[in-house]
Specification:
10 helices; WH_DNA-bd_sf; Arc Repressor Mutant, subunit A; D-Maltodextrin-Binding Protein, domain 2; 304 residues; three-stranded antiparallel beta sheet; globular; 3 domains; 45% helix; alpha/beta; five-stranded mixed beta sheet
């Protein structure tokens, strides 16, 4: 198999046109087209159908794309592999996750892991959830953490547990001491919403639809950490859970149970097609301990 042909195929899948793919790899469009043709002829397959200037993946192309990314990722890792052998340094544990859970869950787990396994370096890569699926298909990670479901259906995650979304208010707000809140209680408060590409926004919107209620959005942000800081600044309320809430803002924010249950499941996942990192199991245990402590602390706070 011609690896350059494989690279052209992957770039066309990402870019949508042969011209942009050729630019990415510094080839003429005709040369890129020939490489793509070589790949199709070698295996007697059709990877794309032509639609004006765009190349539309065939079902075979769609199915082959994750495997192509995996092969290219393994090739890209060869220099790192030999560099690692020459340095004789411990192999870094490569973590991937999306931004929402970094401060509240992943970073505390890394700190605890460094205490348990001080000789194992960690490399953390953070991607928007919409890009996390592509990174998973690239297979360049040892351990992934995410809310569930995962953005790809080719991996079976290990479930950490489930928490409930709550109304996040500044602790000095008059409603912060309530046992439970519903749409009627907050209908006149400024709502700081996550944008509609996020899992949390979709969970909230579905719950509001089932309750036949509406919330008027005052501010909209794409990251939970931004919403929490606006709540900390007394600009309104948002929805959060005790696992994802940033420890830096947590002392200023009250999480009040919501009238309608809004469950948020969390999990971790490992690469399915290669050997595990020797310390992946140790990190999984630390992550589970941190998650359980967050849930336990939230339950204790509710009963006090």
């Amino acid at each position: 198999m011609n690896l350059k042909s494989l690279k052209v195929f992957a770039l066309v899948m990402e870019e949508g046109t042969l011209a942009r793919a050729a630019d990415r790899i510094n080839l003429s469009q005709s040369a890129a087209s020939r490489l793509l043709q070589i790949l199709e002829e070698e295996f007697s397959i059709v990877l794309f159908r032509r639609d004006k200037k765009r190349l539309i993946p065939t079902p075979i192309g769609e199915r082959f794309y994750p495997e192509a990314l995996r092969i290219l990722a393994q090739v890209d890792q060869i220099p790192d592999f030999f560099a690692q052998m020459r340095s004789d340094a411990p192999e870094a544990l490569r973590l991937i996750c999306h931004p929402r859970i970094v401060n509240g869950l992943v970073l505390p787990a890394i700190v605890r892991f460094a205490q348990v396994e001080p000789n194992t370096p960690v490399k953390l890569e953070i991607y928007p959830r919409r890009d996390l699926g592509r990174r998973i298909m690239n297979d360049r990670y040892d351990f992934g953490i995410s809310t569930l479901p995962l953005p790809v259906d080719t991996i079976r995650p290990n479930v950490l547990g489930t928490t409930e979304l709550r109304v996040a208010l500044h602790k000095d707000h008059s409603l912060a001491q309530r046992d439970v809140l519903g749409p009627v209680d907050i209908k006149d408060l400024p709502y700081i919403a996550l944008d509609d590409t996020t899992v949390i926004r979709r969970i909230v919107d579905r719950a509001m639809d089932r309750a036949n209620a509406q919330l008027s959005i005052k501010h909209e942000v794409s990251a939970g950490s931004a919403a929490y800081r606006l709540v900390q600044s007394k600009l309104g309320f948002t929805f959060a859970d005790p696992v994802a809430l940033d420890p830096e803002v947590a002392p200023d924010i009250a999480l009040v149970p919501w009238q309608y249950k809004m469950a948020v499941p969390f999990g971790y996942f490992l690469p399915p097609k290669r050997d595990r990192h020797p310390e992946a199991a140790a990190f999984a245990k630390v992550l589970q301990d941190i998650f359980d402590a967050k849930i336990s602390g939230a339950k204790t706070a509710e009963t006090n």
